[in-house]
From TrEMBL:
It holds the Pfam family NAD_binding_10. It comes from the Bacteria. It comes from Paenibacillus oryzisoli. Residues 7-171 form the NAD(P)-binding domain. Gene3D superfamilies: NAD(P)-binding Rossmann-like Domain (3.40.50.720). Transmembrane segments: none annotated. This is NmrA family transcriptional regulator. GO terms for molecular function: protein-containing complex binding.
Length: 253
């Protein structure tokens, strides 16, 4: 079948496009750099012509509160309308585990707005919420760094490697719409401060991680042990452990 991947030139998009092509499907990678813009509408109708499934793994270029909200609302309004016109039978979107528990952040308020637009659309859908990616551990640390000290809460996480996210998305893309939300997470729960400590040890980063119950996630969000882990029924649990990813990453660094 023909599948369009919005955000097909990004971290997850490239992996997903490759996975689906290997399975024999006609896959169009769509992004502004590839001539398809969901904000302006440029190339959108042409890209969706004849498509059975659209997968949206795009992300906002700016995370400023109003900018990120404008991006997700405008992009999804245009995309869902174009899908309805083109007769697309399944919309798959990548979102974030715990979105409704992280609404102190403008980014997660924007993701919630995206999910609501999808749920209110006439296009059958599957929303795939993933936990934090291994690849972004360094970014979590950087945001929390002052000098050589990294202050982090001890909230539980259940991080996942991007390869496993792409594999899960491929499976949901080829399945029937669930018209609901599914969670995808890595195999192990770990506390945020310990996650970064292990990452620093593996990468020989000399910064010191200090456990601070008043510290926030990504500079603005208060979190607890339920905020960043799957809490719904039957989450999909993947197989790549942190240590395996760290060994692979350090070897190839």
């Amino acid at each position: 079948m023909k599948i369009v991947v919005i955000g097909g030139s990004g971290l997850i998009g490239k992996k997903l496009v490759n996975n689906l092509r290997q399975l024999g499907h006609e896959v169009l990678a769509a992004s502004p750099s590839l001539g398809v813009n969901t904000i302006t509408g440029e190339g959108l109708a042409e890209a969706l012509s004849g498509a059975q499934v659209v997968v949206d793994v795009s992300n906002a270029p700016s995370w400023e509160d109003q900018a990120v909200l404008d991006f997700f609302v405008t992009s999804n309004t245009n995309l869902l309308a174009a899908e309805a016109t083109a007769g697309v039978s399944h919309h798959v979107a990548l979102s974030v585990v715990g979105t409704e528990r992280l609404l102190q952040s403008g980014y997660f308020r924007a993701k919630m707005a995206q999910e609501e637009l999808i749920q209110n659309s006439k296009v059958p859908y599957t929303i795939v919420r993933a936990t934090q990616f291994f690849e972004f551990i360094g970014g979590i640390a950087d945001v929390a760094t002052v000098g050589d000290t990294v202050r982090l809460p001890s909230a539980l996480m259940q991080p996942i490697v991007s390869d496993d996210v792409a594999a899960a998305l491929a499976d949901f893309t080829l399945a029937s719409p669930v018209n609901g939300i599914v969670d995808v997470a890595g195999p192990d729960q770990i506390r945020m401060d310990e996650l970064v400590r292990q990452y620093f040890k593996a990468t020989q980063d000399k910064r010191q991680v200090v456990t601070d119950p008043n510290a926030v996630y990504y500079g603005s969000v208060e979190v607890n042990d339920q905020s960043l882990v799957p809490t719904g029924s039957n989450p999909r649990i993947t197989t790549t452990h942190l240590n395996d990813w760290l060994k692979r990453t350090i070897v190839h660094a």
